[in-house]
Write a structure and sequence with these properties.
154 residues
Length: 154
Amino acid sequence: MTSSEMGRRYIEEARGRVELVRLAHERGLWATVVREAQEAVELLLKGALRLVAVEPARTHDVAELLKREAGRFPAWFQSEIQALASISTEMAGDRGVAFYGDERQGLGPQDLFDEANANRAIRNLDYVAELCARLTVPAPEQSGRGDGSAGSTS
């Protein structure tokens, strides 16, 4: 399997998780929404990196890698890198607490996140999912880069 194929599969898997995030939201499981949205965003961004033949870091926050490898992406995606990097860092920071809570303060995850946090996580997820899905759309014949997909570099 090529890096590009794996990237597409990561993005497909992450997009499938959006329904799970929405179900958690419907049930008022705010911390679960935050955590699951972070995992989906991480998978989307790692998929995007694989689409341009970059092995993603074994870390939850890929912000620095996205910025370092920005030139491999189409111009329209490059213009979103700073926002994507910020989202990656913000959501990765919430990941652990959304799962375990804050043991020092004696607070569970459900005590630390509310509906506003969950709504922000969903907005971030939707934004990242839309951009990463667009990367998987074949580019117009004339360029192959710049305004369409990330191509099929392996």
